[in-house]
Amino acid sequence: MTNTAGKPVIAIHGGAGTISKASLTPEADAAARAGLRNALEAGYAVLAGGGTALDAVTAAVVELESHPSFNSGYGAAFNQGGSHELDAAIMDGQTSLAGAVAGAKRIKHPILAARALAQQADPLLLIGEAADTWAQERGLEVVENSFFSTDSRRELLERMLERQRQGTAAQATEQEKHGTVGAVALDAHGHLAAATSTGGYTAKPVGRVGDSPIIGAGTWADDRTCAVSGTGKGELFIRTALAHSIHARMLYAGQTLAQAAQAQIDETGRLGGGGAGLCAVDRHGNVALPYDTEGMYRGWMNADGVYVAIHEE
Ligand code: ASP
Q1: Which end of the chain has fewer CB atoms < 10 Å from its terminal CB, N or C?
Q2: Cα 48 to ligand 1 centroid, rounded to whole Å
Q3: What is the spatial distance between Cα 176 and Cα 164, in angstroms, rounded to a whole number?
Q4: pLDDT tier, 5 (very low <50, low <70, confident <90, very high otherwise)
Q5: Of 280, 289, 308, nearest to 41 (Cα)?
Q6: CB 230: neighbour CB atoms within 10 A?
Q7: What are the domain boundaries of the chain?
Q8: Would you call the peptide bond into 26 cis, given omega within 30 degrees of 0 as the criterion?
Q9: Ligand 1 atom having least distance to the Cα of 17
Q10: Which residues are catalytic?
Q11: 103 φ, ψ to 5°?
């Protein structure tokens, strides 16, 4: 929990699926940290210029989607069928408008499609080919599905498929299992926003949709309380309505952001766990970045400075 009270702030995660500290090479460590910093700077530049939280989280997530270290956009995880199905969502805490895509295959920046959907009340969530077509018709950039592929994600797919054959999938490392990117922000006008984008988990069944595009599960923002973006075992986040529950604990039970966020991480543990983390900011500018995995790519930035971390540090 970081007290950044009263000032515009952006906080991000690059997924709870970090490489174990022992096997993270200095190059991979530096690349991930640079990616986090770029995203924070892109988001914070919007806030510092008097821009909206919605624009700030969009800018940060576009950066993260462009970076191969993180499981979203370019560098997204492969599904069991060897292709990429991308989920993303965004929510505006001022208006409660939200937009999301699930199972998109060709939208270069899924968060931009979610953002465009959030400019209208209906439809909120589009899936698969329809999402791709809708984005293309609105002038968003579309690419071949192979654009998102990287060698390291293909290696993870091979490893996961082998585990599935051997029946050892449950013992997969955090890096094999997880990854997502997200951003939350409080702007100078007192408004909150949250954005999340993911390739889901490696070797997920074709057609599987996680928590990220489900408003209230992996993504939530409400000016009265907080903005939340989650990363981890999506099925548990859906079953516990993770992001909305943090808001509800604050609004109805008077909990602080830190209490509410930790309680919902614990709640996923009660259902068996599987790895959970999130970034959140409240209406006062307090930031929470809890996780129960070995690490989580994460950071925040405000007028006082920038903080970036991967493991416990
Ligand atoms: N929450 C994502 C999903 O279930 C994956 C992750 O963050 O690890 O799709």
Answers
A1: C
A2: 30
A3: 12
A4: low
A5: 308
A6: 34
A7: 2-309
A8: no
A9: 8
A10: 180
A11: 65, 30
Homologous superfamily (CATH) for 2-309:
(Glycosyl)asparaginase (3.60.20.30)
pLDDT tens readout for residues 207-218:
999 999 999 999
How far is it, in rounded angstroms, from Cα 217 to Cα 81? 26
What local confidence, expressed as pLDDT, does residue 6 receive?
64
Q: State the SS3 of the chain.
A: CECCCCCCEEEEECCCCCCCHHHCCHHHHHHHHHHHHHHHHHHHHHHHCCCCHHHHHHHHHHHHHHCCCCCCCCCCCCECCCCCCEEEEEEECCCCCEEEEEEECCECCHHHHHHHHCCCCCCCEEEHHHHHHHHHHCCCCECCHHHHCCHHHHHHHHHHHHHHHHCCHHHCCHHHHCCCEEEEEECCCCCEEEEEEECCCCCECCCCCCCCCCECCCEEECCCCEEEEEEECHHHHHHCCHHHHHHHHHHHHCCCHHHHHHHHHHHHHHCCCCCEEEEEEECCCCEECCECCCCCCEEEEECCEEEEECCCC
Q: Ligand 1: which of 198, 293, 298 to mutate, most ligand atoms within 8 Å of CB?
A: 198
Q: Indicate the pTM of the whole model.
A: 0.96
Residues with CB under 6 A from ligand 1: 15, 17, 178-180, 198, 200-201, 210-212, 218, 231-232, 234
- pLDDT for 150 equals 97
Gap between the Cα atoms of 299 and 195, Å rounded: 15
Binding residue per annotation — 216? Answer: no
Q: Which pLDDT score is estimated for 171?
A: 83
